[in-house]
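Z., the sequence and structure:
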Amino acid sequence: METKIKEKIKVISLFENGQIKPLFFFWRKRSYKILRVVFSYSKDVGRERIFYFSVECGGGVFELSFNRERFWWEIEKVF
């Protein structure tokens, strides 16, 4: 089952060699260590490029997004 969330979150990530690697995120007063990125893709929404990451944590699978132009992270969905 999938639940849409669409809330801004804080993320610790590594920007290296032209790639983004999310490591931890903080949502609703909890921290989540990202064990692995299951899937990632990007798409253009108007003039903005959004990068999407399906990540596996100890508590489940989440879809995170990074807006390159606004430089913010959001949690999109919980699976």
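The chain has one domain: 3-78. The mean pLDDT is 97.

Let me know what you think.
H.
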